[in-house]
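To illustrate the input format used throughout this study, we show a single complete record. The first block contains the structure-token representation of the backbone; no residue identities are included at this stage. The design step must infer an amino acid for every position from geometry alone.
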């Protein structure tokens, strides 16, 4: 398949994950939350490379795609950018902000898999300074700084580049009018089932109306697979089987990478959605959002085993 450029607007972030060998519920008194002051000893810590744009680029590049990341990093982001560049990912669209830190999440998890997360956006607030490089086969506007999402969406639409709107955890940044503007400029919408309901509520548009405003809408549903709305039809995409569900972090990004690879290569929406499902399955079998191997021959086998035919 010919490798065509895909523009990926989204975050580049560090994820610092700590594990508390206990249960939050044993240390948080419900009647004292108004003066909460607790400390958790977390003997286990790991730092992962994350962020929506980088996660998508990692998997897309592994498939043989040509992602260009539109993002911003801070003074501590040099190692991350160098890592992406060493893989062969185009990082010329990443802005370096020496007066800020790179976006990062600090996540503390207890033994019941409850999480307390603090997120520092840092340089992400200046991602709008990243300039799209054209031409491109496809683009995606994923969670990023609000101004970056608006600016990159408008630039892609103005240039005639088909693109996916992926609001994700950035949806609270926008009101209903802004979400409708973004939706009307997009070629496709990608959301999970909760985000679909939230977007419907914020825009005042029922689900079928959301789907009618774009060429295609994908709603992911975890282990229940995904639903593809396209061409006036609704198709359920079965989830690809997995061997062991170890870590869901970044599964949605891996899914989107598979979709973008299929679309950029002209494989069509149903094949692209199934490829997304396979990439999500491969990701969930590994810890961290960028530690799963992406081997084209293995991907083709997983696809054939799940859906009966090979994708290429």
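Output of the design step:
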């Amino acid at each position: 398949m010919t490798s065509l450029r895909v523009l990926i607007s989204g975050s580049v972030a560090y994820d610092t994950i700590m594990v508390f060998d206990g249960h939050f519920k044993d240390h948080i008194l419900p009647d004292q939350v108004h003066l909460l002051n607790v400390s958790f000893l977390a003997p286990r810590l790991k730092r992962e490379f994350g962020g929506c744009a980088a996660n998508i680029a990692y998997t897309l590049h592994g498939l043989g795609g040509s992602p260009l990341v539109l993002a911003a990093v801070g003074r501590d982001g040099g190692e991350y950018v160098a890592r992406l560049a060493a893989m062969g990912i185009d990082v010329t669209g990443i802005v370096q902000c020496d007066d800020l830190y790179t976006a990062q999440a600090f996540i503390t998890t207890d033994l019941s898999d409850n999480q307390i997360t603090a997120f520092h956006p840092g340089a992400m607030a200046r991602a709008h300074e990243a300039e799209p490089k054209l031409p491109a086969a496809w683009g995606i506007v994923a969670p990023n700084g609000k101004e970056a999402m608006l600016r990159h969406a408008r630039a892609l639409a103005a240039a005639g580049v088909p693109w996916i709107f992926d609001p994700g955890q950035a949806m609270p940044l926008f009101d209903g009018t802004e979400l409708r503007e973004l939706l009307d400029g997009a070629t496709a919408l990608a959301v999970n089932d909760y985000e679909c309901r939230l977007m419907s509520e914020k825009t005042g548009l029922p689900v079928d109306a959301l789907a009618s405003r774009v060429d295609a809408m994908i709603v992911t549903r975890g282990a229940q697979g995904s639903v593809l709305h396209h061409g006036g039809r609704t198709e359920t995409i079965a989830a690809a089987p997995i061997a062991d569900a170890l870590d869901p972090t970044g599964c949605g990004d891996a899914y989107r990478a598979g979709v973008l690879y299929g679309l950029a290569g002209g494989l069509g929406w149903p094949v692209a959605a199934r490829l997304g499902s396979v990439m999500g399955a491969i990701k969930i079998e590994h810890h961290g959002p960028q530690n799963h191997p992406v081997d084209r021959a293995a991907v083709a086998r997983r696809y054939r085993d799940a859906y009966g035919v090979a994708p290429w």
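Structural context for interpreting the output: The chain has a mean pLDDT of 95. The radius of gyration is 19 Å.
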